[in-house]
Design brief:
mainly alpha
């Protein structure tokens, strides 16, 4: 009798675990399905691809050939100094499309239709973030190819070069999470687009992306030196060109992980309230 009771208790205990594992597996499949949907939309509308890629290419050419001769940098050519900043900035700007897309889907009722379907509630948000991460990865690789065409070279080996790209993509993923919260919280496409200019432009331009921070006014250097975009770009530049890595490595990790810890729960909470 006791053996039967024990067996039944064990069966009851095993059932929730099996159910949880199955739900996680189905939720993952739903997320991949939503990712595929978003990528198909992107590939079937050539204008999306064009405008996603053409802006960072224009930035590379503009700063390389128009401003490059007027901005001296120590111990490096300007194109080598520029490219880590362009990659980080482009990843950040590409990621803000997450906010606009989510706001558009809310306005058109797409999110409501997804909720009426027998799919995991998390799949919509996870699929959006994953597809946008893949898009920004493609953008970064295209920018790197353009950079090589205009004279950029890695000077620190293959391993650090790969780490530099991974760090730039990680910055983009973090901005994706911030953007997801912004889009879900504001919910209006035009307002979201305007708000993106308010916080994203100062973070990317008041940084070490395009000019050495030492050339900025003293009162501006305090902000530029201690904001996350500068810290990540300085680490990317050290990985690409050589230089001390330890300080900005742990600072970059702290900033990126800290932002994720804050904004992922905020995005999930905002999505539940839509």
């Amino acid at each position: 009798m006791s053996a039967v009771t024990t067996a039944r208790s064990g069966a009851r205990a095993a059932t929730p675990a099996t159910g949880l594992g199955r739900r996680m597996r189905l939720g993952t499949m739903d997320a991949f399905t939503m990712t595929r949907r978003e990528l198909l939309i992107w590939f079937r509308v050539p204008a999306y691809i064009f405008f996603t890629i053409i802006q960072p290419i224009m930035f590379v050419l503009l700063f390389r050939y128009v401003f490059g001769g007027a901005i001296p940098v120590p111990n490096s050519t300007y194109v080598d100094f520029l490219m880590p900043g362009i990659i980080a900035q482009s990843a950040a700007f590409a990621s803000f499309g997450t906010a606009i897309a989510l706001a558009r889907q809310i306005q058109k009722g797409v999110i409501d239709r997804f909720r009426s379907m027998p799919i995991a509630r998390s799949a919509v948000l996870a699929g959006r973030l994953l597809s946008d991460s893949l898009r920004l990865t493609l953008t970064v690789l295209v920018i790197l190819g353009v950079g090589y065409a205009v004279g950029f070279r890695f000077h620190n080996g293959v391993g650090p070069a790969i780490l530099m790209l991974v760090l730039g993509i990680a910055l983009g993923v973090v901005v994706c999470c911030i953007s997801a919260y912004v889009g879900l919280a504001i919910r209006d496409e035009e307002s979201v687009g305007s708000f993106g200019l308010v916080w994203l432009f100062p973070l990317t331009f008041v940084s070490s992306a395009f000019v050495p921070v030492a050339k900025m006014p003293g009162w501006l250097q305090a902000f530029a030196n201690n904001q996350p975009v500068t810290i990540v770009i300085d680490e990317m530049r050290a990985l690409a060109l050589g230089g001390p890595l330890a300080l900005h490595a742990w600072q970059s990790a702290v900033w990126l992980v800290g932002i994720l810890v804050v904004f992922v729960p905020l995005a999930v909470r905002a999505y539940r309230r839509v």
